[in-house]
Each structure stands twice: as C-alpha cells, then as structure tokens.
C-alpha cells in the first residue's frame, strides 16, 4: 500500500559500494540516505542545493557522495556525518544533469544543460582542463568505463559520444542511431558494452572499442527510456520507463527477462542495482523509491517515502493550549489544542526549512531556527514576528533553539560549530560565539538556574559554558566513544547526563567536570534522548530503535518506570508503532508511517502527529493509564 503525502519527484537513486546505503536525490532540493537493511532514513536530509537534485554518485570507497543539481552546482558530502565537504563546485552555467566518479575516485565528471562536460579533481575540488565540447544540445548523462580511460555521454542531440578521460579529446565520431534524446548511458562491468536509453522508446547496445552499434542491439518498448543500468555481473540490464514500469533484459540476446515490474504511479527516472546484483532500486515522479528483488521481480516491503515537506520540530506551549510546528516548507504553524485547528495563517519569513521551534517558559514568545542561518522570534498569540530583524550571526543552518528557565536568554546551536546566546529583550547576541567544539552540535541544555549551558557534539565531547561570560567552563568532558546525541541537567542542577551513539549514558558533575560513576550500559541502540523525572530520581533514555530504558539515580540500576513517566519527552516510532517506555501503545495506520523524529509531541493524554503536512491528534489518555 502506497503512503499518501505531498511527495516530490525522485530524480536519482544510487547504492553505496558496500550496498549498505541507498542515496536518493529529489526535486525537493535534498539528498537522503537510507539503510538498505531497515529501509529507514539514516539521518537528516542533506540540504544545501537551492534547486532539485538531478544526479547522485558515491565515490568508490563509499566515504563521499556527490550530488548534481538544477542550481548548476555539484556538492560533495561526507556519508558518515552528512556534512558538506566544501563549497559547491561551480562552473556550469546551467543545470547539472549527471555526475559520475571515475573508478579510482580521483576524477568527477559532470554533464550539463549548458552542452558541456566538466572534469573535476575530487581531492582538490578544482577543474581539470577545459570543458568537453562537442554535443550540440543538453548533455543528459555521463559514465566512466570500468578502467577509467573512457567517458561516455548521452545528449538531447540524439547522439552518444566517447571521450578520452585523461586528455578530454573526443574518440572518433558520435555514435548515431537514436532518433530522439538520449537520457541515459551506462557501461557493462567488463567495459565491452555500452547501453543507451532514449526518448525514441529504445535501448541500444554499443561496442565502445569499435565505436559502433552491436548487431541486433535495439530493444524496443512503448515508452521513453529514462534510465539504464547493468547488474554487477553484466548478465542483466535494467531500464526505467516513462510509463512507470521497469524491465529487465538479457544484454547478450536483447530478450526481456520476466514481466515488467509495476507499482510506480508515474514515470521512473532512475534505476540502480545493488553491488551484489540482488536488489534493484527505482526512483519515480510519484515521490517514492521502490526496492525490488532482481531475481523474482517482486517488490520488497513498502515504498520508501521521505521527499516531502516534513515537519522538522514541534513544541507545546507551557500551558498546553498551543502547539507550534516547523516545517521543510519554510513556515511555522500554530495550532489550538482545544479545537485542533490552525490558528491564523502560517508564520512566514524564513527562506529555508525551519529546523527547531521552542516556546519561552511564559509562553509569550516562540523562537524558530532555520537552515537560512537565522533565528526569528514570534508572538504566538498574534502570529506576528516580534518587531526587529531576524537574529543573524550564524554562518550555517541553525539546528536548535532553547530558552533559559527564566526566558531572558535564548541559546542557538548551528552547523557552523558555534553556539550563540541572545538577550530575548534586546535581541542582541551576548559576547562572542561559544567556540570550542570542532564538529556539529546535537543538543544543548540550560542548567535550572540558567547560569550554565551544556552542549553535546559529534566530536564525542560535552562542553559546559558560563552564560554570563559566554566562556567555556573547564575542559571538554571526554569519555564517549561516538557522537553525543543528547545532554540534560538534573532538576537540582547537580548532575548532567549525556546520551551517545556509543549506546551509553554518562553522568557528570557540572561543577567539577568529572565523571560520576561508571557509564550506564546495555542500551540496544544509539541513545538519542536523555531526560530526568521532575524529582530527579529517575533518568529516562530513549534509543534509535524505539526502545526506552529507565535508570534509578540512587542505585544506578535499571528499573521499571511507572506509565506516568511517558509524559517526559516525545514518543518514538518503531516498526509503525508509537513506543513509550519500551512499550508499544499505538499502532499507526499507513498514512502516518512517514512521521519522522521530531514530528510528534505528547502533552497530557494527547498525541500530536504531522504525517503529510497536516495535523492529526490521538487521544491516548486511556492507554497511558492502563
């Protein structure tokens, strides 16, 4: 069953060399990474392009992912952290339609609507030589031969060209035979065949050594061929069609293998085999990615959806009467929790997705942090921006905003690896940016008296800051073996808890910076969230797999938590169930399966969810007390 949502076109899909990741590029301007085992997203969308992502490609060692966009640039990403590795590679004057790494990873080729191909040094991120000119119209696809010596290109001019990857010189005359646009070109694993898919409804096979068509090589269909791909053993050729179907072929005979693969609701833009050839991924205009068993042709599991205008963050007002939500569509909405209707029009002003929203303790202010690098303050009652310009200073997206307990200060954490503290009355930054971490922030938290701020980072450390002087207090707290996902002060301020992707929780004395006792171990997955009970006697940990563990702070042992503790923090979704305290208490119908972390909030006995750009409310009060 297909999930319902405002999905956008999937333009490209690509498996990582080890087959563990599947990357997808979309018209929603993002790249997303999927775990091929769990069929779930591995992290936040990779955002930075200002237009749709036409093409994606992993470097052979899998550590870097390149994306080519309609904005005319190529971006390089760290596949482990999701961070952009450099400024976008700019040189094309029009849309980048296709990109491809050479087999040794040293070169990156990009093809463009500007009719040229450019070669880049992937290490120095600089252009190599002059643009390759020869096509008389858009260049839609590029592909290196397995030995890296030849580059093939397909164009709107209906031809395929072969180039010397070292010198950039064209090999011979263009390969002609197609009567319309060539959308896709791919070499076979042994380099002896080159396949091209065209708008003339055919797939053609070429001998790249001879520069000629292979006899009886034309595979005819009834729809435009948008994408072609060989399996790793070269025994199968997949093609994606404009009619929404996929076909598998024997490239030696040109005969179809099995029936067409059906399931997409619109044209298929991209097909890609997994490295072992057992899986085939397809991306479509219907906004979904499908995974197929390449042997049987059966669809595996549900379509992957993620390229929609997701809600990034939600927060209840202190009195529970209002709910704020921030979205990828650059807006904030305020909801009345009595009637569960939107209050007024969306709050507009940000120029990119809203990544974090937070009410002040008195409920009179709402803060929002955005990928546009700014923070905005709003009156949640009127929906108007507080007089004055946005709070500016960060040089990268703002991931987190948090008010101090008295509401006088606002902390913001950014991908520029700084934290800024703002006076909410004057809207002026206090002191210099807090610098000390060398990698992204995952979490910040004020101490109960507001005098200290703790931050957890991808560099595996926690830093404590003095909010009055805006300076670091002591050295970074070290001990975790991986990213610090969450930090939280105890209600009395005497303990600081940190949860990490190393699956442990550590306790610290914020006054001395020393670890308190041994790490709390035994969690089944990354510890994504830690929170203390109101009396500080219990610590609740929530993991990436949806499980939750409660620790007794007196004995430092696991304990059973009363159901009332489910009101602390937000719920977790695992296998289509809403989970609290390790218990499945609400199964979600299919239309809610695309809710992401941060897209749900619990207040009292009501659960708010944002599946497809709309608000849904579940009364779970009876479940919580049962």
UniProtKB/TrEMBL annotation:
Is Repeat set as a keyword in this record?
yes
Question: What does the UniProt keyword field contain?
Answer: Repeat, WD repeat
Among Pfam families, the record links this protein to: Beta-prop_EML_2, WD40
Record carries keyword Transit peptide? no
Q: Which domain of life is it from?
A: Eukaryota
Q: Which InterPro entries match?
A: Beta-prop_EML-like_2nd (IPR055442), Quinoprotein_ADH-like_sf (IPR011047), WD40/YVTN_repeat-like_dom_sf (IPR015943), WD40_PAC1 (IPR020472), WD40_repeat_CS (IPR019775), WD40_repeat_dom_sf (IPR036322), WD40_rpt (IPR001680)
Q: WD repeat boundaries?
A: 3-44, 46-87, 89-130, 132-173, 175-216, 218-259, 261-302, 304-345, 347-379, 391-432, 434-475, 477-509, 520-561
Q: Which SUPFAM superfamilies match?
A: Quinoprotein alcohol dehydrogenase-like, WD40 repeat-like
List residues of the EML-like second beta-propeller domain.
12-169
Per its record, how is this protein called by name?
EML-like second beta-propeller domain-containing protein
What is the protein's species of origin? Answer: Tulasnella calospora MUT 4182
Q: What is the lineage of its organism?
A: Eukaryota, Fungi, Dikarya, Basidiomycota, Agaricomycotina
